[in-house]
Amino acid sequence: MRLYDYAASGNCFKVRLLLGMLGVEYERVPVDIFAGDTLTCEYAMINPVRETPVLELDGGERITQSNAILWYLAEGTVWLPDGRLERGWVAQWLAFEQERVMGGLGGPRFLLATGRATEAQVARRLATGRGALEVLDAHLAARDWLVGEAASIADLSVFAYTSVAPVEVPANVEAWLERVRALPGFVDDFVPYPENAQLGAGSSIY
Ligand SMILES: N[C@@H](CCC(=O)N[C@@H](CS)C(=O)NCC(=O)O)C(=O)O
Question: Where does the GST N-terminal domain lie (predicted)?
């Protein structure tokens, strides 16, 4: 199995987290987004939308979209509950992550770290991110994990960009972040953006 991967991406980090926790052997293929690695014809063959992560199976099949990759890897393991309702809730949190956590917390992290946005642009996105944190805080007030009684891919997915939120995180969310960090096999290899991610320093789809 092979993961096309960008170390500073939360979408890639969540996949690395699950692979590590599952103890799955895989080849990590670094994609230097801002050196233009995703802009090549070769990369378009790997992922036509030119994004990371991409999981490539030993038979050559590929899966894109971080949360789809999580679902594929988690099937048949403790990371994806069996029940129909619980699976519905996992899907709900994966969609919430893409809609509000990635855009509302991951987006501003990127814009602030790389000097790409005006204050107004950041503020608009952060309003979404703060709203997401409030929803999470209320949900986690009476439970340890997002779905059911154990950690699932819903937690790993939402964890990635929440763990580097560029705003203060409320108490129940902070306690939940610590619970995720304490899970067996947890490895924090999520890195800050490199120098070539600065506006004007490299080229990418952004
Ligand atoms: N919805 C996608 C988003 C993936 C995405 O935005 N990937 C970014 C890094 S976080 C990327 O690879 N961008 C490529 C580029 O800018 O050239 C997912 O969840 O996998």
Answer: 1-81
